[in-house]
Amino acid sequence: MRRIWLVLTLTSMALVGGCATTAPPATPTRGPGVAALSTPAPSAATPPPVATAAKPPDIVRVYYSSGLAGALQVAIARGYFEEEGIELRHEEFGSTAEAMAPLTTGELDAGSTTPNASLFNALARGVRLRLALAGTYIERGTNYLPLMARLGPDGTPVVKEIADLRGKRIAQNQRGVISEWALDRLLAEANLKLDDVEITIMPFPDALVAFGGGSIDAVVMPEPFGTIAELRGLAARIRDAGDVIPGGQVAVMSFSERFANERPEVAKRWAVAYLRGARDYMDAMELGRDREEIVALLAQMSGFDASLIERAGYGAVRRDGRVDGAAIEAMLDWLVARGYVPQRPDLAPLLDTQFADYAAAVLDSRR
To answer: Taking the model in full, what pTM does it have?
Structure first.
């Protein structure tokens, strides 16, 4: 496992003493003709003050995928983890699936997890972690997960409406994921099923190449890939997942059981920094507040061009930080019905709102 450590230089947190002390008597105010009171020099026997050693930061090992990871990247770039006395160490893996094992054993403290068949089957086998904080979710109007259709020789899309998808070659990055759920719901609008189309498995970057070569006709893909396809003249938007699965949870920030149980105070401070970044991100995307700065930060950390991020749709993040349990259960219903998850896991013990609630309360009190 190749690890790249992202070590953030940290500032120490100011500690407030918990014990009350008696206030010294006030210095009399000088009036006319009253000489200033002199302060006696310290006795030679008085020892010099001893400097208090700064508390070392708490190290948190975290995984997040490459590319855009809005809320977390904003929190990192703006130094919010430093302010909470936390040093992040970024552990890199080839995929979220590879990060699951160290997250469940406690070698990782926190990581971005994707609600999909792989995750739910692992949970059904007894794997334990805490679904602690909301990541990206699907919201109407954000255009984050569009259905893209290849442009034909005449410059028009080969798919103009959902009914045209029958028999078409459609790319998927894998089976049993949220983009396939969205595709299934879109097909249902034209009384079509997944069996009525030809599914081809490939990563989203490869789908761009396949559009150019004409080997696929459509794909439901996340931003900024949809915008890249448009800018290259490869495909056009037909619909968006927000039309059919609003609220769908794309990602969740999960904590290991060890982190949540053995270092809950650190986990809470981690949640505060993360949610602060999430709110800044949503302020920029929804309200335009500090948008230019936030877009520049995301470009710097993701490697995507700022103009691309500015133009693309975005994944929303809930301002209260809570994972939408109902949305995850809805996707699980679909996965079970499709046979992707033979044994349904009980999610109730894994949905832990204490960290989101704590972070929201802290940030709300600072307003």
So the answer is: 0.83
